[in-house]
Amino acid sequence: MVKNLFLAFVLTLPLIGCVTTTNIQIANPKPFVVDSETYQATGKSERIKTIILHYTVSNNARAIKLLTTGDVSAHYLILDHDDNKIYNLVPESERAWHAGNGGFAGRTILNDTSIGIEIVNAGIKPEYRNALKNSELDYHPYEHYVEFNEVQIKKVAQLVQDLSKRYHISPKNVIGHADMAPSRKIDPGAKFPWERLYKEHGIGAWYDDFDKQFFMNQDAFSAATIPEIKQAFRDYGYQINDSDEWDKASRNVVYAFQLHFRPQQPTGELDLETYAILQALNKKYAGRDDFY
Ligand SMILES: [Zn+2]
């Protein structure tokens, strides 16, 4: 009888297991201390790696509505009038939904690791919106794009300078939407003043003229094979397919590159000067960021 009672007790133990656990927690009600001072790791880097610039293709009112009520957003919004403000719509610690599919410098899912800045600008002038249909043009030339105004450039300069410093952004990771999604996007377009931002405010990447001239004189372009050319784009950070053909997707990469680095003549056709600029950039910004 005593044996049976003992057996019954043992069989009941698992049923009261959870009660026992609860009792332990009650016995130790103080939360554990998270100590972030005693030990610290050296293997670490910023989560934010890239700054992506966009234009809105809309006016102020419409941009505010779309970016604050829809499924598209950006961390920062720069309007086109002088209201003395840069609007922060999404905290930098959270993801904004601005980048979409694509990649740059070996990273994809760029919403995870980038800050997005939307600049109010109409993009292509209304009279040229349908210019590529029924025409010989494959891509919009420089004149088709709408200018940014002076206040916007100053706001972008201040904001990107501050972000680059705080997150230690590599110069070539300050990019346009087109740079990371060349077959889907052309913003911030040919009128965005990348060269001026580099030369006047130290923002982003730009080539040295001396190097460009050197590579033009050397003319590696005339002997370069398609795989070599594609690898050169890849080395800089562009995503480009590895087919042996120079297809539309490849021309889209060239167009995005030209919008950024040779904006007065964005043709989508690779030429000696474009290739020399790419080589000059690869020389100046050799190597990649950390990928850990
Ligand atoms: Zn965009």
CATH homologous superfamily placement of the largest domain: Peptidoglycan recognition protein-like
Order of helices and strands: HHEHEEEEEHEHHHHHH
CATH topology value of the largest domain:
Lysozyme-like
How many strands? 7
How much strand? Answer: 5-15%
Uncertain parts: 5-20
Largest sheet: 5 strands, mixed
User: How many domains make up the 3D coordinates?
Assistant: 2
Shape: globular
Radius of gyration: 27 Å
CATH architectural name of the largest domain: 3-Layer(aba) Sandwich
Bound molecules: zinc ion
Number of helices: 10
Task: Determine the structural class based on helices, strands and strand pairing.
Answer: alpha/beta
Compute the average pLDDT: 91
**C-alpha end-to-end distance:** 66 Å
The CATH class designation of the largest domain is: Alpha Beta
Notes on the structure:
38% of the residues lie in helices and 8% in strands. With 292 residues, it is an alpha/beta fold. Strands 3-2-6-1-7 form a five-stranded mixed beta sheet. A two-stranded antiparallel sheet has the order 4-5. Strand 4 (103-104) and strand 5 form a beta hairpin. The longest helix has 18 residues, at 150-167. Zinc ion binds at residues 54, 177, 185, 187.
